[in-house]
Amino acid sequence: ATVYLNPVTIGLCNAGFGYKKVKTFNSKNDGEITLYCGDSNSGYVHIRERHESQWESQKGGFEGPWDDYMAFATQASLESPAYSAEKPSQKRCYTTPIEVYEVVNGAPVKKKTINPTVMISMNNKKVITSYPTTTHRC
User: How far apart are CA 133 and CA 115, in angstroms?
Assistant: First the structure.
């Protein structure tokens, strides 16, 4: 499986280093956007505290931890959004359809499509949150 997030960096998030960069993405409308460790309000720590169980339950046959799946879906939404919308307070919401597969008798079978909601800060160039939604909340 492709390693999306560095376990050492996640360890630093766990130790409270909010300013640490977890992953940088290219976005269609806002250039480079960084997912920081953050805190309970935004970033990786927020996503883990509020949305880990949702990502875990939506990843289907994706092999790897919930946060790699979240990073994959976040990257897809930012780089090739099917839809994006500017929001108040210098925010923009991104989404794109992600097909979820399960492996049945050794073959991938499409289960459903999710449309994750990814919110970024346009002026701070950072990921605020990312969570899996059937219908995006943009």
Answer: 5
Q: Which runs of consecutive H residues, i.e. helices, occur in 15-128? A: 43-58, 66-79
Model confidence pLDDT, tens digit, residues 88-105: 999 999 999 999 998 899
Longest CA span, the chain: 48
| pTM (predicted TM-score) | 0.93
4-7's contacts with Cβ under 8 Å and 24+ in sequence apart are 4/64, 4/67, 4/68, 4/71, 4/72, 4/75, 5/67, 5/68, 5/71
Cα–Cα distance measured from residue 91 to residue 28, given in angstroms and rounded to the nearest whole number: 14
The tokens describing 51, both together, are: 């949305």
Give the C-alpha separation, 31 to 37, whole Å. Answer: 20
**DSSP character for 78?**
H
Distance separating alpha carbons of residues 105 and 115, to the nearest angstrom: 27
Measured distance CA(56)–CA(73) in Å, rounded: 12
Alpha carbon distance 58, 73 (integer Å):
11
